[in-house]
Amino acid sequence: MSQTFRDPQSGGSLIVAWQAKARSILIVGGGAVAAGRVFNALEADANVTVVAPKLCPELEYRAQAQQITWRNRTFEDSDLDGSDMVLTAISDARESRRIADTCKQRRIPVNAADINDLCDFWFMSTHRDHSVQIAVSTNSKAPRLANRIRRQIASSLPRGTGQAVEQIGRLRKRIREADPRPENSKRRMTWLTQLCDYWPIEQLAKLDSDNIDSLLDAYVQDHDPQSVRIHSASESSGMPSPVLPSRTLTPDTPNTGEPNRGRLILVGAGVGDPELLTVRAHRALKEADIVLADKLIPEAVLDIIDCEIYTARKFPGAASEAQDDLYRRGLEELAKGKCV
Q: Rounded to the nearest 5 degrees, what angle is found at the Cα of 274, between the Cα atoms of 272 and 277?
């Protein structure tokens, strides 16, 4: 057999997004940890039952608001009846083990807080923005570090990411309603893929009903999504587009203190080896607030950049549109006084 494939790396978890809507989740405990578990379960639209003789203020609020069902007592084995998932968050380790063992006997997935060997699954550090959910797992080895990694990932997301997903979801639904034929599923997927890959996330986030109608028309008429022109709020209000400063900008250009005047620096990637970049190029990349890059820039060069990297989405026959995209984003950042 001549064809080879990559070997799996053992020791990981199977990462899935479990559809918990209308499922019954039982949480044993009434403290702060239990409150966190309850919040996660409610965000997944689960039916949540809490068993505890006493509740923390947050859980008291949720019980009074009828967001949860509260059984005001200690755990009983009959509480497991009808449960799809069980989460324990109590200080009694022996009771947690007993509950977990009982769940395993009844084939109910269970998580016991701070007792890793009892858990069928772990909770991850998550970021939520509308329908976007990003989770980081260290497989229970370094949960505090997982929080730091999650914050760093979230801070690097383009502005409007969650709203962009909502708008694409609306457009996708409209396209499926207008063209429901199964034989056209590949066409639908290809068209939406090109739209998602080419358009800036910030622009997708600004789509309104009229824009979605225009995009739907473009799909129905088999037009390239890149050819569709939408008007932003700034265009409709008559606000002028940002204008490049007239002076020449280099890494050594002093900051004059003038408001909203950014710095534009051109850096060549050379042959693609970061060690062969000039000292000035290294400094410019390290001091930049955002780097606008072409898809042809090698990963080794991109790896030395600490700030946001905005990459042009080039498709065959659309090089000029990609260049216009970079030009537009550069103007936006320069108008904010950023180093680009």
A: 90
